[in-house]
Amino acid sequence: MKIVKYLVPVFMAAFLSAPVSLKAQSPLSIDLRPDRENAVAPSMGDHLRFWSTIRNDGAVPIQGVVAWISLIEMDAGHEQPVDLEDWSAHKAITGTALGPGGSLRTDWPMRLIKGGDYRVVVSVTERGTRQVFTSPTIEFQVRPKKVLETKRVLAVAAGVPLLITGLIIFNRCRNGRTPVS
Question: Within this chain, do residues 60 and 89 fall inside the same structural domain, yes or no?
Answer without folding.
Answer: yes
